[in-house]
Amino acid sequence: MKPSLLFFWATLLTLRLATAQTNPPRLIIRGDDMGYSHAGNEAILTCYKEGIEKSIEVLVPSPWFPEAVEMLKQIPDADIGVHLTLTSEWDNIKWRPLSDCPSLRDADGYFYPMIRPNKDYPKRSVVENDWKLADIEKEFRAQIELAMKKIPRISHFSGHMGCTSLNDEVKDLVKKLAQEYHIKHTDMSLRDAGVTYTGYVGAHVTAEEKLQSFTKMLESLEPGKTYLFVDHPGLNTPEVQAIHHIGYENVAADRQGVTDIWTNPRVKQLIKDKRIQLIGYNQL
Question: In the record, which residues are listed under signal peptide (predicted)?
């Protein structure tokens, strides 16, 4: 290799290293669905206290929401979001709307299990029924106001199972509610804030595959960029083993895998070595 070319590559490498050190990647690790189970609440708390999780999404109508409120008092600096929901997807445990919104309830008074059509749950999705925008607004307001009453530090809104992106009218509604309740960030505003969604890289079925895929994701992050990674911590306990729906039966093992990764010493060391800054929505 010619000296001039060698000098060029050495200079480029030096510049890249300098950039990585002075402008490292930023990463939001978001734990979703707090409130869906007691073990889920425990896992989310552990992933914040002992792991890399920095943002927590709370399902306000869920049965374990009161416990979530009490647990979050243990981590007063944690970034908390309202995980707006219109569904109750599990077969063995259900939750109902907080408001009087008949177009969003099934015959038993629960939320429908799905947002969009699903062959395993025929005619049991929101879009297959005569939903009303006014009912969605009423329910979203009820969830937001209860969350802000119990957890005043709410920093953002997100949508469970994509409900906040149901259509353009719902997107506009969420934007309006965010402005009204003085919330800076929603799922839809992240791209405007320069945030890139990221996920597992490669297969992630088994626990080892999940760890390797998560590690590859961390290694792929570029200096100067901000990323969001979302998953659902849990514990492999009898309680969570009883929680499932058709097409997602291994909930307990899968979510235990998330907890294991987010508290893994190798993962924490890699984040330190790459100088990745872990942040919440409240630091955007």
Answer: 1-20
Task: Enumerate residues 6+ apart whose C-beta is below 8 A from 78.
Answer: 48, 54, 55, 56, 72, 280
pTM over 0.70? The answer is yes
**pLDDT, tens digit (0-9, with 9 covering 90-100), for 53-100:** 999 999 999 999 999 999 999 999 999 999 999 999 999 999 999 999
Task: Give me the residues paired with residue 196 across strands.
Answer: 227
Burial (0-12, 13-18, 19+ Cβ within 10 Å), 44: buried
User: Would you say 124 and 94 are in contact if contact means Cβ atoms under 8 Å apart?
Assistant: no
Across 48-164, where does the E strand assignment appear? 55-58, 79-84, 154-159
DSSP letter for 167, please. S
Pull the structure tokens for residue 171.
């997107």
Q: Where are the beta strands (DSSP E) in the chain?
A: 26-34, 55-58, 79-84, 154-159, 195-197, 226-231, 277-278
Q: Could you tell me the pLDDT band of residue 207, with boundaries at 50, 70 and 90?
A: confident
Instruction: Identify which of 68, 57, 66, 61 has the alpha carbon closest to the alpha carbon of residue 88.
Output: 61
Domains of the chain: 25-283 (3.20.20.370)
CA distance 212 to 261: 10
